[in-house]
Hints:
Strand content: under 5%
Helix content: 55-70%
Distance between the termini: 28 Å
Order of helices and strands: HHEEHHHHH
Structural class: mainly alpha
Radius of gyration: 15 Å
Number of helices: 7
Number of strands: 2
Amino acid sequence: MVTGRATKLIPEGLPVGTDPASVRRRIEVLERLLDRAFIVPGLNRPVGLDAIIGLVPVAGDTIAAIMGFYLLWEARNIGMSKWQLTRMAGTVGLDWLIGTVPVAGDVVDFFYQSNSRNLKRIRRHLDRHHPGTGIIQG
Length: 138
């Protein structure tokens, strides 16, 4: 049983369907986990697993990129254009490439949150093509 902060990161009953509303919910949870899971004390800056596992040279950044490419797979499944998918892949690829540079890559990874950028693109697509999936943000 998961308790505490983790229950807020991965909610119970995460949808498994292929409908746009389920996809939206899954990608929002994954983005939160990868880019905004924790707040850095003193800086009040969100950081996620992407930056944390990115501290492991090459392998950590590769694992984070694979998780980032899952967002692309979901985006493809909801019918996003090849141009948007290419831009999203470039964002994840740039994050991976910069992240492989020791130390400097980790600092950039802290500020360049590729998954948040890609989530914005997916949200715009969903809002335009599947407006019923929108959730009022509080």
